[in-house]
Design brief:
Length: 509
Protein backbone atom coordinates (compact mmCIF):
# COMPACT_ATOMS: atom_id res chain seq x y z
CA UNK A 1 0.00 0.00 0.00
CA UNK A 2 2.82 2.35 0.94
CA UNK A 3 4.66 1.41 -2.25
CA UNK A 4 1.65 2.40 -4.35
CA UNK A 5 1.35 5.72 -2.54
CA UNK A 6 5.03 6.48 -3.01
CA UNK A 7 4.76 5.60 -6.71
CA UNK A 8 1.82 7.99 -7.10
CA UNK A 9 3.78 10.70 -5.32
CA UNK A 10 6.76 10.13 -7.62
CA UNK A 11 4.55 10.26 -10.75
CA UNK A 12 2.98 13.48 -9.52
CA UNK A 13 6.37 15.01 -8.80
CA UNK A 14 7.60 14.11 -12.28
CA UNK A 15 4.55 15.65 -13.90
CA UNK A 16 4.80 18.82 -11.84
CA UNK A 17 8.48 19.12 -12.71
CA UNK A 18 7.75 19.03 -16.44
CA UNK A 19 8.17 22.37 -18.19
CA UNK A 20 5.20 23.94 -20.03
CA UNK A 21 4.60 22.45 -23.48
CA UNK A 22 3.60 24.34 -26.60
CA UNK A 23 0.05 23.41 -27.66
CA UNK A 24 1.11 22.12 -31.08
CA UNK A 25 3.67 19.85 -29.40
CA UNK A 26 0.96 18.63 -27.02
CA UNK A 27 -1.32 17.87 -29.97
CA UNK A 28 1.56 15.89 -31.49
CA UNK A 29 1.83 13.90 -28.26
CA UNK A 30 -1.89 13.17 -28.34
CA UNK A 31 -1.27 11.26 -31.56
CA UNK A 32 -3.48 10.66 -34.55
CA UNK A 33 -6.04 7.91 -34.26
CA UNK A 34 -9.61 6.81 -33.66
CA UNK A 35 -10.79 10.13 -32.23
CA UNK A 36 -9.68 12.03 -35.32
CA UNK A 37 -11.41 9.59 -37.65
CA UNK A 38 -14.58 9.84 -35.58
CA UNK A 39 -14.60 13.64 -35.50
CA UNK A 40 -13.90 13.67 -39.25
CA UNK A 41 -16.94 11.41 -39.74
CA UNK A 42 -19.16 13.65 -37.59
CA UNK A 43 -17.98 16.91 -39.14
CA UNK A 44 -18.02 15.38 -42.61
CA UNK A 45 -21.55 14.09 -42.14
CA UNK A 46 -22.54 17.55 -40.99
CA UNK A 47 -21.01 18.94 -44.17
CA UNK A 48 -23.12 16.42 -46.12
CA UNK A 49 -26.16 17.73 -44.25
CA UNK A 50 -25.21 21.24 -45.33
CA UNK A 51 -24.96 20.14 -48.97
CA UNK A 52 -28.38 18.51 -48.70
CA UNK A 53 -29.97 21.50 -46.96
CA UNK A 54 -28.58 24.11 -49.35
CA UNK A 55 -29.21 22.26 -52.62
CA UNK A 56 -32.53 20.60 -51.70
CA UNK A 57 -34.30 23.77 -52.86
CA UNK A 58 -33.20 22.96 -56.42
CA UNK A 59 -35.70 20.06 -56.35
CA UNK A 60 -38.34 22.00 -54.42
CA UNK A 61 -38.40 24.77 -57.06
CA UNK A 62 -39.73 22.68 -59.98
CA UNK A 63 -41.89 20.34 -57.88
CA UNK A 64 -43.63 23.12 -55.89
CA UNK A 65 -44.02 25.64 -58.71
CA UNK A 66 -47.72 24.87 -59.22
CA UNK A 67 -48.58 24.99 -55.50
CA UNK A 68 -47.16 28.52 -55.24
CA UNK A 69 -47.71 29.61 -58.88
CA UNK A 70 -44.04 30.50 -59.26
CA UNK A 71 -42.57 32.28 -62.27
CA UNK A 72 -38.84 32.20 -63.04
CA UNK A 73 -38.40 35.35 -60.94
CA UNK A 74 -40.22 33.71 -58.00
CA UNK A 75 -37.97 30.68 -58.37
CA UNK A 76 -34.91 32.91 -58.31
CA UNK A 77 -36.15 34.55 -55.11
CA UNK A 78 -36.76 31.15 -53.48
CA UNK A 79 -33.27 30.00 -54.44
CA UNK A 80 -31.88 33.28 -53.16
CA UNK A 81 -33.75 33.23 -49.83
CA UNK A 82 -31.32 30.71 -48.35
CA UNK A 83 -28.45 32.85 -49.59
CA UNK A 84 -29.82 35.94 -47.80
CA UNK A 85 -29.93 33.97 -44.55
CA UNK A 86 -26.47 32.53 -45.16
CA UNK A 87 -25.10 35.98 -45.96
CA UNK A 88 -26.34 37.34 -42.62
CA UNK A 89 -25.54 34.23 -40.64
CA UNK A 90 -21.99 33.64 -41.89
CA UNK A 91 -20.88 36.97 -40.48
CA UNK A 92 -22.54 36.42 -37.11
CA UNK A 93 -21.56 32.78 -36.60
CA UNK A 94 -17.89 33.62 -37.08
CA UNK A 95 -18.06 35.99 -34.12
CA UNK A 96 -20.02 33.44 -32.06
CA UNK A 97 -17.36 30.81 -32.84
CA UNK A 98 -14.52 33.10 -31.78
CA UNK A 99 -16.27 34.33 -28.64
CA UNK A 100 -18.39 31.39 -27.41
CA UNK A 101 -16.79 28.38 -29.04
CA UNK A 102 -16.62 26.41 -32.29
CA UNK A 103 -18.77 23.54 -31.04
CA UNK A 104 -21.33 25.88 -29.48
CA UNK A 105 -21.78 27.70 -32.78
CA UNK A 106 -22.14 24.45 -34.72
CA UNK A 107 -24.73 22.94 -32.38
CA UNK A 108 -26.87 26.08 -32.33
CA UNK A 109 -26.65 26.73 -36.07
CA UNK A 110 -27.48 23.20 -37.21
CA UNK A 111 -30.40 23.00 -34.78
CA UNK A 112 -31.76 26.22 -36.27
CA UNK A 113 -31.37 24.81 -39.79
CA UNK A 114 -33.25 21.63 -38.91
CA UNK A 115 -36.11 23.37 -37.09
CA UNK A 116 -36.83 25.96 -39.79
CA UNK A 117 -36.49 23.38 -42.56
CA UNK A 118 -39.23 21.33 -40.91
CA UNK A 119 -41.43 24.41 -40.59
CA UNK A 120 -40.84 25.21 -44.28
CA UNK A 121 -42.00 21.74 -45.22
CA UNK A 122 -45.57 22.56 -44.14
CA UNK A 123 -45.63 26.14 -45.43
CA UNK A 124 -48.79 26.95 -47.37
CA UNK A 125 -48.00 30.54 -48.31
CA UNK A 126 -45.14 31.66 -50.53
CA UNK A 127 -43.87 34.45 -48.18
CA UNK A 128 -43.82 31.99 -45.27
CA UNK A 129 -41.82 29.52 -47.34
CA UNK A 130 -39.37 32.30 -48.24
CA UNK A 131 -38.98 33.31 -44.56
CA UNK A 132 -38.36 29.71 -43.45
CA UNK A 133 -35.76 29.18 -46.19
CA UNK A 134 -34.11 32.42 -45.13
CA UNK A 135 -33.89 31.31 -41.48
CA UNK A 136 -32.72 27.85 -42.49
CA UNK A 137 -29.97 29.50 -44.52
CA UNK A 138 -29.07 31.65 -41.50
CA UNK A 139 -28.64 28.49 -39.45
CA UNK A 140 -26.77 26.36 -41.96
CA UNK A 141 -24.26 29.17 -42.61
CA UNK A 142 -22.73 28.36 -39.22
CA UNK A 143 -21.27 25.22 -40.76
CA UNK A 144 -18.34 27.29 -42.05
CA UNK A 145 -17.01 26.94 -38.50
CA UNK A 146 -16.50 23.22 -39.23
CA UNK A 147 -13.11 23.82 -40.83
CA UNK A 148 -11.82 25.78 -37.82
CA UNK A 149 -13.21 23.23 -35.36
CA UNK A 150 -11.85 20.20 -37.16
CA UNK A 151 -8.48 21.73 -38.08
CA UNK A 152 -7.70 22.75 -34.51
CA UNK A 153 -7.62 19.12 -33.34
CA UNK A 154 -4.99 18.15 -35.91
CA UNK A 155 -1.27 18.91 -35.95
CA UNK A 156 0.12 21.10 -38.73
CA UNK A 157 1.71 18.15 -40.53
CA UNK A 158 -1.62 16.49 -41.38
CA UNK A 159 -4.02 19.45 -41.23
CA UNK A 160 -4.24 20.30 -44.95
CA UNK A 161 -4.79 16.70 -46.01
CA UNK A 162 -7.30 16.11 -43.20
CA UNK A 163 -9.38 19.16 -44.09
CA UNK A 164 -9.35 18.30 -47.78
CA UNK A 165 -11.23 15.06 -47.05
CA UNK A 166 -14.26 17.20 -46.20
CA UNK A 167 -14.94 17.64 -49.91
CA UNK A 168 -15.69 13.92 -50.17
CA UNK A 169 -18.53 14.35 -47.69
CA UNK A 170 -19.94 17.29 -49.66
CA UNK A 171 -19.87 15.02 -52.70
CA UNK A 172 -21.69 12.33 -50.73
CA UNK A 173 -24.43 14.83 -49.90
CA UNK A 174 -24.74 15.83 -53.57
CA UNK A 175 -25.14 12.13 -54.48
CA UNK A 176 -27.55 11.24 -51.67
CA UNK A 177 -29.88 14.21 -52.29
CA UNK A 178 -31.15 13.25 -55.78
CA UNK A 179 -31.50 9.64 -54.65
CA UNK A 180 -33.81 10.71 -51.82
CA UNK A 181 -35.63 13.10 -54.17
CA UNK A 182 -36.05 10.33 -56.74
CA UNK A 183 -37.64 8.07 -54.13
CA UNK A 184 -39.95 10.68 -52.59
CA UNK A 185 -40.94 13.45 -55.01
CA UNK A 186 -42.45 11.27 -57.80
CA UNK A 187 -44.94 9.83 -55.27
CA UNK A 188 -48.45 11.01 -56.07
CA UNK A 189 -50.08 11.09 -52.62
CA UNK A 190 -51.95 14.28 -51.75
CA UNK A 191 -53.21 15.14 -48.26
CA UNK A 192 -55.71 18.01 -48.11
CA UNK A 193 -57.52 19.41 -45.12
CA UNK A 194 -59.11 22.78 -45.71
CA UNK A 195 -56.30 25.23 -46.43
CA UNK A 196 -53.62 22.66 -45.64
CA UNK A 197 -51.98 20.71 -48.49
CA UNK A 198 -49.23 18.12 -48.04
CA UNK A 199 -47.56 16.48 -51.03
CA UNK A 200 -44.41 14.52 -51.77
CA UNK A 201 -42.10 17.54 -51.92
CA UNK A 202 -43.19 18.48 -48.39
CA UNK A 203 -42.14 15.04 -47.14
CA UNK A 204 -38.87 15.38 -49.04
CA UNK A 205 -38.03 18.60 -47.17
CA UNK A 206 -38.78 16.98 -43.80
CA UNK A 207 -36.46 14.05 -44.52
CA UNK A 208 -33.68 16.40 -45.61
CA UNK A 209 -33.91 18.34 -42.33
CA UNK A 210 -33.57 15.38 -39.95
CA UNK A 211 -29.84 14.86 -40.53
CA UNK A 212 -29.01 18.36 -39.26
CA UNK A 213 -30.87 17.74 -35.99
CA UNK A 214 -29.26 14.33 -35.46
CA UNK A 215 -25.73 15.63 -35.98
CA UNK A 216 -26.33 18.64 -33.73
CA UNK A 217 -27.20 16.16 -30.98
CA UNK A 218 -24.04 14.10 -31.64
CA UNK A 219 -21.86 17.20 -31.47
CA UNK A 220 -22.96 17.73 -27.86
CA UNK A 221 -20.88 14.69 -26.88
CA UNK A 222 -17.67 16.03 -28.47
CA UNK A 223 -15.19 18.37 -26.74
CA UNK A 224 -14.54 22.00 -27.63
CA UNK A 225 -11.52 22.89 -29.77
CA UNK A 226 -8.34 22.80 -27.63
CA UNK A 227 -6.86 25.82 -29.42
CA UNK A 228 -9.99 27.85 -28.76
CA UNK A 229 -10.00 26.84 -25.08
CA UNK A 230 -6.36 27.74 -24.58
CA UNK A 231 -6.66 31.02 -26.49
CA UNK A 232 -9.53 31.92 -24.13
CA UNK A 233 -7.27 31.23 -21.15
CA UNK A 234 -9.06 28.01 -20.10
CA UNK A 235 -5.90 26.07 -19.31
CA UNK A 236 -7.38 23.23 -17.24
CA UNK A 237 -10.20 22.63 -19.73
CA UNK A 238 -7.62 22.42 -22.52
CA UNK A 239 -5.68 19.77 -20.60
CA UNK A 240 -8.91 17.83 -20.01
CA UNK A 241 -9.71 18.02 -23.74
CA UNK A 242 -6.27 16.69 -24.68
CA UNK A 243 -6.58 13.91 -22.09
CA UNK A 244 -9.94 12.93 -23.59
CA UNK A 245 -8.47 12.70 -27.09
CA UNK A 246 -5.35 10.90 -25.82
CA UNK A 247 -7.38 8.20 -24.06
CA UNK A 248 -9.60 7.72 -27.13
CA UNK A 249 -6.66 7.43 -29.52
CA UNK A 250 -4.56 5.11 -27.37
CA UNK A 251 -7.40 3.19 -25.69
CA UNK A 252 -5.61 3.48 -22.37
CA UNK A 253 -6.10 4.96 -18.92
CA UNK A 254 -2.48 6.13 -18.77
CA UNK A 255 -2.02 9.71 -17.73
CA UNK A 256 -1.48 12.24 -20.48
CA UNK A 257 2.18 13.33 -20.01
CA UNK A 258 1.45 17.07 -20.11
CA UNK A 259 0.28 19.16 -17.18
CA UNK A 260 1.14 22.68 -18.30
CA UNK A 261 0.75 24.47 -21.62
CA UNK A 262 2.23 27.66 -22.96
CA UNK A 263 -0.54 30.24 -23.12
CA UNK A 264 -0.82 32.21 -26.36
CA UNK A 265 -2.14 35.75 -26.47
CA UNK A 266 -5.68 35.36 -25.19
CA UNK A 267 -8.64 36.42 -27.27
CA UNK A 268 -10.62 39.44 -26.24
CA UNK A 269 -13.63 38.53 -24.16
CA UNK A 270 -15.86 41.13 -25.89
CA UNK A 271 -17.46 42.24 -22.64
CA UNK A 272 -19.05 45.32 -24.25
CA UNK A 273 -21.98 43.42 -25.71
CA UNK A 274 -22.70 41.24 -28.71
CA UNK A 275 -22.82 43.86 -31.45
CA UNK A 276 -19.92 45.84 -30.04
CA UNK A 277 -17.86 42.68 -29.87
CA UNK A 278 -18.89 41.75 -33.40
CA UNK A 279 -17.79 45.16 -34.66
CA UNK A 280 -14.49 45.03 -32.76
CA UNK A 281 -13.69 41.53 -34.09
CA UNK A 282 -14.32 42.62 -37.66
CA UNK A 283 -12.29 45.81 -37.35
CA UNK A 284 -9.54 43.87 -35.57
CA UNK A 285 -9.22 41.46 -38.49
CA UNK A 286 -9.13 44.14 -41.17
CA UNK A 287 -6.63 46.29 -39.28
CA UNK A 288 -4.31 43.41 -38.42
CA UNK A 289 -1.32 42.25 -40.44
CA UNK A 290 -3.65 39.72 -42.06
CA UNK A 291 -5.88 42.37 -43.65
CA UNK A 292 -4.53 41.86 -47.19
CA UNK A 293 -5.11 38.10 -47.01
CA UNK A 294 -8.62 38.73 -45.61
CA UNK A 295 -9.52 41.08 -48.47
CA UNK A 296 -8.24 38.72 -51.18
CA UNK A 297 -9.99 35.67 -49.70
CA UNK A 298 -13.25 37.63 -49.50
CA UNK A 299 -13.02 38.63 -53.17
CA UNK A 300 -12.24 35.06 -54.23
CA UNK A 301 -15.10 33.68 -52.15
CA UNK A 302 -17.46 36.21 -53.70
CA UNK A 303 -16.51 35.31 -57.26
CA UNK A 304 -16.31 31.54 -56.83
CA UNK A 305 -19.50 31.15 -54.77
CA UNK A 306 -21.45 33.44 -57.10
CA UNK A 307 -20.50 31.26 -60.04
CA UNK A 308 -21.15 27.98 -58.26
CA UNK A 309 -24.64 28.72 -56.98
CA UNK A 310 -25.70 30.54 -60.15
CA UNK A 311 -25.54 27.24 -61.98
CA UNK A 312 -25.71 24.50 -59.34
CA UNK A 313 -29.13 25.40 -57.95
CA UNK A 314 -30.50 25.70 -61.49
CA UNK A 315 -29.18 22.40 -62.86
CA UNK A 316 -32.42 20.43 -62.24
CA UNK A 317 -34.47 23.25 -63.80
CA UNK A 318 -32.22 23.45 -66.87
CA UNK A 319 -32.13 19.68 -67.30
CA UNK A 320 -35.91 19.54 -67.03
CA UNK A 321 -36.19 22.13 -69.82
CA UNK A 322 -33.71 20.25 -71.98
CA UNK A 323 -35.70 17.05 -71.52
CA UNK A 324 -38.92 18.88 -72.41
CA UNK A 325 -37.35 20.23 -75.60
CA UNK A 326 -35.91 16.89 -76.72
CA UNK A 327 -39.24 15.18 -76.09
CA UNK A 328 -41.29 17.84 -77.90
CA UNK A 329 -38.90 18.64 -80.75
CA UNK A 330 -36.86 15.51 -81.30
CA UNK A 331 -34.75 15.19 -84.43
CA UNK A 332 -31.41 16.42 -85.77
CA UNK A 333 -33.01 19.36 -87.64
CA UNK A 334 -34.12 20.88 -84.36
CA UNK A 335 -30.63 21.20 -82.84
CA UNK A 336 -30.10 24.55 -81.10
CA UNK A 337 -28.14 25.99 -78.20
CA UNK A 338 -29.07 26.03 -74.53
CA UNK A 339 -30.23 29.66 -74.38
CA UNK A 340 -32.80 29.16 -77.13
CA UNK A 341 -34.07 26.01 -75.46
CA UNK A 342 -34.61 27.59 -72.03
CA UNK A 343 -36.35 30.60 -73.60
CA UNK A 344 -38.66 28.37 -75.68
CA UNK A 345 -39.82 26.68 -72.48
CA UNK A 346 -41.30 30.01 -71.39
CA UNK A 347 -42.56 31.53 -74.63
CA UNK A 348 -44.77 28.66 -75.83
CA UNK A 349 -47.94 29.03 -73.74
CA UNK A 350 -49.81 26.38 -75.68
CA UNK A 351 -47.26 23.82 -74.49
CA UNK A 352 -46.50 24.94 -70.94
CA UNK A 353 -49.03 27.33 -69.44
CA UNK A 354 -52.48 25.82 -70.01
CA UNK A 355 -51.93 23.15 -67.37
CA UNK A 356 -49.27 23.76 -64.75
CA UNK A 357 -46.73 20.95 -64.95
CA UNK A 358 -44.64 20.37 -61.83
CA UNK A 359 -43.34 16.93 -62.77
CA UNK A 360 -39.58 16.43 -62.82
CA UNK A 361 -38.44 14.06 -65.53
CA UNK A 362 -36.83 10.92 -64.09
CA UNK A 363 -33.70 11.52 -66.14
CA UNK A 364 -33.06 14.69 -64.11
CA UNK A 365 -32.64 12.70 -60.88
CA UNK A 366 -30.27 10.29 -62.61
CA UNK A 367 -28.28 13.15 -64.12
CA UNK A 368 -27.79 14.84 -60.74
CA UNK A 369 -26.58 11.53 -59.29
CA UNK A 370 -24.11 11.25 -62.18
CA UNK A 371 -22.90 14.79 -61.53
CA UNK A 372 -22.29 13.88 -57.89
CA UNK A 373 -20.43 10.70 -58.83
CA UNK A 374 -18.28 12.73 -61.22
CA UNK A 375 -17.03 14.69 -58.19
CA UNK A 376 -15.53 11.60 -56.55
CA UNK A 377 -12.22 11.61 -58.52
CA UNK A 378 -11.40 15.21 -57.57
CA UNK A 379 -12.50 14.58 -53.98
CA UNK A 380 -9.97 11.74 -53.77
CA UNK A 381 -7.11 13.26 -55.75
CA UNK A 382 -6.88 16.53 -53.81
CA UNK A 383 -6.28 15.09 -50.28
CA UNK A 384 -3.88 12.47 -51.65
CA UNK A 385 -1.63 15.00 -53.39
CA UNK A 386 -2.24 18.28 -51.54
CA UNK A 387 0.91 17.98 -49.40
CA UNK A 388 3.00 17.49 -52.55
CA UNK A 389 1.42 20.09 -54.86
CA UNK A 390 -0.08 22.55 -52.37
CA UNK A 391 -3.48 24.15 -51.91
CA UNK A 392 -2.80 27.01 -54.31
CA UNK A 393 -2.11 24.64 -57.22
CA UNK A 394 -5.44 22.84 -56.83
CA UNK A 395 -7.31 26.11 -56.32
CA UNK A 396 -5.98 27.60 -59.55
CA UNK A 397 -6.74 24.42 -61.52
CA UNK A 398 -10.25 24.11 -60.10
CA UNK A 399 -11.25 27.74 -60.74
CA UNK A 400 -9.78 28.01 -64.24
CA UNK A 401 -11.15 24.60 -65.26
CA UNK A 402 -14.66 25.26 -63.96
CA UNK A 403 -14.62 28.73 -65.58
CA UNK A 404 -13.90 27.24 -69.00
CA UNK A 405 -16.59 24.56 -68.56
CA UNK A 406 -19.12 27.29 -67.65
CA UNK A 407 -18.25 29.19 -70.84
CA UNK A 408 -18.81 26.08 -72.94
CA UNK A 409 -22.37 25.71 -71.60
CA UNK A 410 -23.51 28.39 -74.03
CA UNK A 411 -22.67 26.18 -77.02
CA UNK A 412 -24.28 22.90 -75.92
CA UNK A 413 -27.05 21.45 -78.07
CA UNK A 414 -28.12 18.32 -76.18
CA UNK A 415 -28.83 17.05 -72.68
CA UNK A 416 -25.79 14.76 -72.93
CA UNK A 417 -23.45 17.70 -73.51
CA UNK A 418 -25.21 19.53 -70.69
CA UNK A 419 -24.60 16.57 -68.38
CA UNK A 420 -20.89 16.31 -69.23
CA UNK A 421 -20.16 20.01 -68.77
CA UNK A 422 -22.31 20.21 -65.64
CA UNK A 423 -20.32 17.32 -64.15
CA UNK A 424 -17.00 19.00 -64.91
CA UNK A 425 -18.26 22.31 -63.53
CA UNK A 426 -19.58 20.78 -60.31
CA UNK A 427 -16.49 18.64 -59.69
CA UNK A 428 -14.03 21.52 -60.09
CA UNK A 429 -15.96 24.47 -58.65
CA UNK A 430 -17.15 22.66 -55.51
CA UNK A 431 -13.67 21.44 -54.63
CA UNK A 432 -12.37 24.96 -55.20
CA UNK A 433 -14.82 26.47 -52.72
CA UNK A 434 -14.02 23.80 -50.13
CA UNK A 435 -10.30 24.45 -50.52
CA UNK A 436 -10.87 28.15 -49.87
CA UNK A 437 -12.05 27.22 -46.37
CA UNK A 438 -8.97 25.02 -45.96
CA UNK A 439 -6.57 27.75 -47.00
CA UNK A 440 -8.27 30.26 -44.68
CA UNK A 441 -7.75 27.89 -41.73
CA UNK A 442 -4.07 27.63 -42.69
CA UNK A 443 -3.47 31.35 -43.24
CA UNK A 444 -5.18 32.85 -40.17
CA UNK A 445 -4.25 32.36 -36.48
CA UNK A 446 -6.70 31.09 -33.87
CA UNK A 447 -7.91 34.50 -32.68
CA UNK A 448 -8.93 35.52 -36.22
CA UNK A 449 -9.69 32.14 -37.78
CA UNK A 450 -13.41 31.80 -37.10
CA UNK A 451 -14.15 35.39 -38.11
CA UNK A 452 -11.95 35.23 -41.21
CA UNK A 453 -13.54 32.04 -42.50
CA UNK A 454 -17.03 33.34 -41.81
CA UNK A 455 -16.53 36.78 -43.36
CA UNK A 456 -15.20 35.11 -46.50
CA UNK A 457 -18.28 32.92 -46.51
CA UNK A 458 -20.45 36.03 -46.03
CA UNK A 459 -19.03 37.59 -49.18
CA UNK A 460 -19.62 34.29 -50.95
CA UNK A 461 -23.27 34.23 -49.95
CA UNK A 462 -23.76 37.82 -51.11
CA UNK A 463 -22.50 36.66 -54.48
CA UNK A 464 -24.70 33.56 -54.41
CA UNK A 465 -27.74 35.72 -53.72
CA UNK A 466 -26.92 38.14 -56.53
CA UNK A 467 -26.15 35.25 -58.85
CA UNK A 468 -29.54 33.62 -58.28
CA UNK A 469 -31.31 36.90 -58.89
CA UNK A 470 -29.34 37.36 -62.12
CA UNK A 471 -30.31 33.87 -63.28
CA UNK A 472 -33.96 34.38 -62.36
CA UNK A 473 -34.14 37.67 -64.26
CA UNK A 474 -32.14 36.73 -67.37
CA UNK A 475 -32.57 32.98 -67.84
CA UNK A 476 -35.65 33.37 -70.07
CA UNK A 477 -34.49 36.43 -72.01
CA UNK A 478 -30.68 36.73 -72.19
CA UNK A 479 -29.28 33.41 -71.06
CA UNK A 480 -25.73 34.39 -72.07
CA UNK A 481 -25.43 36.93 -69.23
CA UNK A 482 -25.42 34.39 -66.33
CA UNK A 483 -22.98 32.19 -68.26
CA UNK A 484 -20.62 35.09 -68.96
CA UNK A 485 -20.72 36.27 -65.33
CA UNK A 486 -20.07 32.77 -63.98
CA UNK A 487 -17.16 32.15 -66.35
CA UNK A 488 -15.52 35.53 -65.71
CA UNK A 489 -15.74 35.35 -61.93
CA UNK A 490 -14.17 31.90 -61.80
CA UNK A 491 -11.24 32.82 -64.03
CA UNK A 492 -10.58 36.02 -62.04
CA UNK A 493 -10.69 33.99 -58.81
CA UNK A 494 -8.12 31.56 -60.21
CA UNK A 495 -5.62 34.35 -60.86
CA UNK A 496 -6.26 36.01 -57.47
CA UNK A 497 -5.32 32.77 -55.70
CA UNK A 498 -1.75 33.29 -56.91
CA UNK A 499 -1.49 36.44 -54.77
CA UNK A 500 -2.08 34.45 -51.54
CA UNK A 501 0.87 33.19 -49.42
CA UNK A 502 1.84 29.56 -49.74
CA UNK A 503 0.63 27.29 -46.93
CA UNK A 504 2.35 24.56 -44.99
CA UNK A 505 5.58 26.48 -44.38
CA UNK A 506 4.65 28.57 -41.39
CA UNK A 507 3.39 27.48 -38.00
CA UNK A 508 0.39 29.74 -37.55
CA UNK A 509 -1.52 29.12 -34.35
Amino acid sequence: MNKNKSKDVEDTALLVAQPPVHLDDAIEMVGFGNFHYYILFICGSLFSAVAISVTSVSFVVPSAQCDFQMTSVHKGILNGASMIGMFTGSFIWGYVADSRGRRYALILSMTMDGVFSIISSVSQIYPVLIFCRLMSGFGVSGATVLYSYLGEFVNTKYREKFLCWMEMFWTAGIIILPCVAWLIIPQTFRIEYGFFLFRSWNLFVIICSLLSLLLAWLLVRLPESPKFLLAKGKHDETIDCLKFVYRWNHKTDDKFPVTSLILPDCMNEHSNGFFTGLYESTVGLFTSKYKFIAIITCIIQYGATTSYYMLMLWFPELMNRFRWYETSYSGPKNMTNMCEIVSMFRVEPEETDQVCNDNIDKSVYLNIVIIGIACIPTSLIVPLFVNRLGLRFFLVVSFLGSGLSAACLYFITSSLENLVLSSVFEALSSVGISLMYCIAVELFPTEYRGMAVSIGSTFGKVGALMGNIVVGVFIDEICAIPILVSCSFLIISGFLVLTLPKTGRTNIQ
